[in-house]
Design goal:
FMN; 339 residues; binds flavin mononucleotide; FMN binding; TIM Barrel; two-stranded antiparallel sheet; OxRdtase_FMN_N; eight-stranded parallel barrel; alpha/beta
Length: 339
């Protein structure tokens, strides 16, 4: 099995190591959704620090699909140039680049009314959403595909569809949030309809050799939510529709926290999906200890490890991990004086 500092190839994308910067909203975008100097400095610093795959935060496919008005947008061609500059610089430091395309649904806090599969929410903080009509659902499918076209134009190596954390795609998948009685609700086959349409729509507009990623919430931490077995079944269908690797997170449909949070608390889900659906997975969640990351990969539980908060603390975490594991990782020449 490969380790943290072995390369990883998925279709036409080759990562120099298996550390991914997990998507993390910065709430620093301009109100029109364009990126700022903050994003350039933030993402490029992690590329300089040796991360194999830098993923840009959840970026709204519609203005009303942003979590906040400080979110990055990818709903207009005006967003492409700023993103392209981030991509260009990250690549010049040897990182590959990804962008997470997202729609927050109920969890959007923008001036526009929020929308969802069904007109209710489990959260006190969000407004009651408007129920989407089937015509509006199709418009959002198109918005995801248009966003993917822009991501390709900006030069990203891969795209991740945000299907986790109780946002719009997750809202359709989950019986906790999807109470529709039409072809988009009820049985699993129906709850899968919108997510599969999004995947197919994106797949149709990206180059054949570009891998497509999808983030899921593998557990809803509720008896009334979908089960891990159902998630494995969903992952099989995502794969059939064109997803090449699943980024395995959890929670978000309800305002409840996981029962226990400990290093690698979501790793079991990445392992179950990897083997159950026979698809590469990204593990995430308090995987900040290089020995534990190595264990996850070498024991075949996941293929890539995403790091969130540790990379906020330490942009050079990849080098720290390489030193700890005795692996080689080249940083820009002048930084050699520091090691
Ligand atoms: C500030 C912040 C912003 C986040 N934004 C996103 C996001 O845009 N998309 C997403 O899927 N997850 C988001 N997350 C979750 C992280 O990607 C990651 O899954 C989580 O922090 C667990 O990994 P960690 O323990 O390494 O931090 C965010 C987390 C933080 C701390």
């Amino acid at each position: 099995m490969a380790g943290l500092f072995d390369s990883f190839t998925l279709k036409g994308m080759e990562l120099k190591n298996r550390i991914m910067m997990s998507p993390m909203c910065q709430y620093q975008a301009n109100e029109d959704g364009t990126v700022t100097d903050w994003h350039l400095v933030h993402y490029v610093s992690r590329a300089i620090g040796g991360v194999g795959l830098v993923m840009v935060e959840a970026s709204g496919v519609e203005a009303r699909g942003r979590i906040s008005t400080g979110d990055v947008g990818i709903y207009s061609d005006d967003h492409i140039a700023g993103l392209a500059r981030i991509v260009e610089l990250c690549k010049s430091y040897g990182a590959k680049t990804a962008i997470q395309i997202a729609h927050a649904g109920t969890k959007a806090e923008t001036p526009e009314p929020n929308v969802a599969p069904s007109a209710f929410t489990h959260f006190d903080r969000y407004n009651t959403p408007q129920e989407l009509t089937t015509g509006e659902i199709q418009e959002i499918v198109t918005a995801f595909a248009d966003a993917a076209v822009r991501a390709v134009k900006a030069g990203f190596d891969t795209i991740e569809i945000h299907g986790a954390h109780g946002y719009l795609i997750n809202q359709f998948l989950s019986p906790l949030t999807n109470k529709r009685t039409d072809e988009y609700g009820g049985a699993l086959e129906n709850r899968l309809r919108f997510p599969l349409q999004v995947i197919r729509g994106v797949k149709a507009v990206i180059p054949d050799d570009m891998p497509l990623l999808m983030r899921v919430s593998a557990s809803e931490y509720s008896e009334e939510g979908y089960s891990l077995d159902e998630m494995v079944e969903m992952a099989k269908q995502f794969k059939e529709a064109g997803v090449d690797m699943i980024d395995v997170s959890s929670g978000g449909s309800l305002p409840t926290a996981p029962p226990a949070i400990y290093p690698g608390y979501q790793l079991q889900f990445a392992e179950a999906i990897k083997h159950g659906a026979e698809i590469p997975t990204i593990a995430v969640g308090l995987l900040h200890n290089p020995a534990l990351m190595e264990e996850a990969l070498q024991n075949g539980r996941a293929d890539v490890v995403a790091v969130g908060r540790e990379l906020l603390r330490n942009p050079h975490f990849a080098k720290t991990a390489a030193l700890e594991l005795g692996a080689e990782l080249e940083l820009p020449n002048v930084y050699k004086y520091a090691y």
